[in-house]
Design a protein that fits this description.
18 helices, binds 4-fluoro-L-phenylalanine, 2 strands, mainly alpha
Length: about 475
């Protein structure tokens, strides 16, 4: 085993990260699945599927996961494990080892910025889910009508104090876990929360099968009517494949730095991609039958699907209050295991840069992110009229991170892994020789993924600037 030197004289073995290591391959799968499964699967996937007509959209989304998501995730884990440091320092090392241009380290910097921006609003929306866990449990939605649930949701969004409170609760919980480190914080959280989440989700699908209109929900998700799918919908599916797998910003790269050397990257990444997809589909199978069970409700209601439509359904079904409470608890768990991964790139960089204690960095990062989140809180009320190019503060932050930084980050990661990184490192990490696997990998990472991402990226820009 060779000995390498990291920043400020910390000497560690080259195949171990100074920040910690996953205690097994399974823990990495749980942690990365925890990062991937979040608001994107349970809040966003069902409503964008609803807005884009169902089955055909789902099919395109699945294709994007397979053709773009999986190769880019393999690239992130591979890069992370090859460098074993924060994404920024990992890229510095690999750029040096591959004799490449130093500008490639921009991938790490952009990831840090994107993680920071995403967490600032992710914590606000996750705070809504935490608050709804209590609301549903209190029975306030029993027998609710659409007017009733809209009024409650609008009243909630109109109150900066309430939003700030729940934002603070969620951010404090996130920072508490993160500050405890990889073994005592991240691993403990995912070890318990992920199995609970999967069990709750299965329970909810069972409930939807018994009390919901399961046949209609199933048909909505899986009947492929391509006339309902627009070009814009296709591109939304591609963009979402990225967000849902936590790609393009170094979160998976940071987690990859703690993966044991012996674990197979391709097997673990396929497992993570399959689990994330299964959870998104299961969330659809839990939500749509429940929505269809109540006369007059439709799944195309946009972001309000989870906070307005679903509470009506729960309010009018047997055991609805208890099951609704369980549903929002599940969403809160899913969100927190994603939020903790958003801080990892910046946190590890600052620890390396200043040789600082992890918990101090966590508190400082959390505080800044919390402050930035106040802008999102106010976007729904006091600042709702303050816009830049017609977008509120929240929409600007969301646009910058989701539509610009993630696709651009993903594109650069694919190009770096496919065209720049020394072949010796790739072969060592992936363990593929020259055979079919190698050719498939090369086609996916060098051509298919970059071309796909470029299309999403160009379209998002066109859509904004042309309208
Ligand atoms: N994958 C998460 C979700 O689907 O909610 C969101 C996310 C987490 C995006 C972590 C990016 C990230 F680095």
């Amino acid at each position: 085993m060779t000995i390498g030197t990291l920043t400020k004289g910390t000497v560690v073995a080259d195949d171990v990260s100074r920040h910690g290591m996953w205690s097994s391959r399974l823990l990495f799968v749980l942690a990365a699945t925890g990062s991937a499964v979040g608001l994107g699967n349970i809040w966003k996937f069902p409503y964008i599927t609803g807005e884009n007509g169902g089955g055909a959209f789902v099919l395109v989304y699945l294709l994007c996961i397979a053709a773009i998501g999986i190769p880019v995730m393999m690239a992130e884990v591979m890069i992370g494990r090859a460098g074993r440091q924060s994404p920024i320092n990992t890229l510095r090392t690999l750029v040096r080892d591959s004799n490449a241009n130093r500008s490639w380290t921009i991938i790490g910097w952009m990831g840090v910025a994107a993680g920071f921006l995403i967490l600032s609003y992710y914590a606000v929306i996750a705070g809504w889910a935490v608050s709804y866990t209590f609301r549903l449990g209190s029975g306030v939605f029993d027998g609710a009508t659409g007017a009733h649930t809209s009024q409650i949701f609008d009243g909630f969004l109109g109150s900066p104090g309430s939003l700030l409170f729940w934002h603070t609760v969620f951010m404090a919980a996130t920072i508490f876990i993160v500050a405890r480190g990889v073994a005592r914080g991240l691993e403990v959280a995912v070890r318990y929360l992920m199995p609970i989440l999967l069990i709750l989700l299965l329970g909810l699908v069972g409930y939807a099968a018994i009390y919901g209109d399961f046949a209609r929900g199933f048909e909505f998700l899986f009947s492929f009517d391509f006339s309902k799918l627009s070009w814009g919908g296709t591109l939304t599916a591609m963009g979402h494949a990225f967000f849902t797998l936590s790609l393009g910003m170094g979160a998976i790269m940071a987690y990859g730095a703690y993966v044991p050397s012996k674990a197979s990257i391709s097997t673990t990444v396929f497992t993570i991609g399959a689990l994330d997809t299964a959870v998104a589909l299961a969330a659809g199978l839990a939500i749509f039958p429940i929505v269809f069970a109540v006369a007059g409700l439709e799944p195309g209601d946009g972001p309000g699907l989870m906070f307005v439509t679903l509470p009506i359904a729960f309010g009018n079904l047997p055991l609805g209050a208890a099951l609704g409470c369980v549903f929002f608890l599940l969403v809160s768990f899913a969100a927190i295991t994603s939020a903790i991964s958003l801080t990892e790139p910046v946190l590890t960089y600052l620890v390396e840069r200043y040789d600082a204690k992890r918990w101090i960095v966590a508190v400082v990062v959390g505080l800044f992110c919390w402050l930035l989140g106040i802008g999102t809180v106010l976007s729904f009320n006091e600042w709702s009229g303050a816009t830049l190019f017609g977008l509120t503060f929240f929409e600007v932050v969301d646009y910058l991170s989701y539509k610009i930084m993630l696709p651009l980050g993903g594109l650069l990661i694919a190009l770096f892994a496919g065209w720049v990184l020394a072949k010796r490192i790739v072969v060592e990490q992936l363990g593929f020789g020259e055979g079919t696997k190698w050719q498939l990998w090369n086609a996916a990472i060098c051509v298919i993924a970059p071309a796909g991402i470029l299309i999403v990226f160009a379209y998002s820009l066109y859509e904004t600037f042309a309208s």
